[in-house]
Design goal:
The longest helix is centred in the last third of the chain and has 16 residues, at 143-158. The termini are far apart. With 179 residues, this protein is of the alpha+beta class. It has helices spanning 6-11, 18-31, 143-158; strands spanning 13-16, 44-50, 55-60, 64-68, 73-86, 89-100, 103-106, 109-113, 117-121, 127-131.
């Protein structure tokens, strides 16, 4: 990891463990105005971000290949992904490749245009532009909302449903004649 020196590591925010690393990756992507599904990594071991220099790194147990269905593209993420980031731009990217026809092309830069388009650039300056929407994944439902729904459901189970008061049939008035 050429960008990640001991000096950078010493100043950076670092996290370990898959769950917290996934969460921090989404937070950092949002901070730099990039779509939340841009880095669909799995089994992340470490994430680091030095805000001063903009250096970011992610380590995962094994490389993965992900298909972005909306654009029908395969992207390969190595075990180590590094970059220098700023709002709307990821530069000096390493560890990411995209399949174009029969070959894997290294991606070295990613930037957004007008918040609707995202461009991927190779070291040879070839580039491809796609809609940002292809890289957005729906956010998970907040746990608090799930719990409140569950609590309401449990309360409903514990309290028997109260029946609506039954309306008694109207009594007919009968006139009785005395003889």
């Amino acid at each position: 990891m050429g960008l990640v020196t001991e000096e950078v590591r010493a100043k950076a925010e670092m996290y370990t463990g898959d769950e917290i690393c996934r969460e921090k990756t989404k937070v950092f992507l949002k901070e730099i105005s990039m779509p939340n599904g841009l880095l669909p990594l799995k089994d992340i071991e470490e994430v680091g971000y030095d805000r001063e220099s903009g250096v970011v790194w992610l380590k995962q147990k094994q490389s993965i290949t992900h298909k972005f269905e909306a654009i029908d593209k395969l992207v390969s993420y190595g075990t180590e992904v590094t970059a220098v980031v700023q709002t709307g731009k990821i530069k000096k990217l390493t560890g990411v490749k995209s399949k174009e026809l029969l070959i894997w092309v290294t991606i070295s830069e990613i930037y957004t245009e007008e918040k609707e388009k995202i461009t991927f650039k190779s070291p040879t300056t070839l580039s491809r532009t796609f809609p940002v929407s292809a890289f957005i994944v729906p956010e998970d439902v907040e746990p608090a909302k799930e719990k409140s729904t569950e609590a309401t459901d449990e309360a409903a189970k514990e309290e028997p449903a109260k029946e609506a008061p039954k309306e008694e049939p109207a009594k007919e008035a009968v006139a009785v004649k005395e003889a």
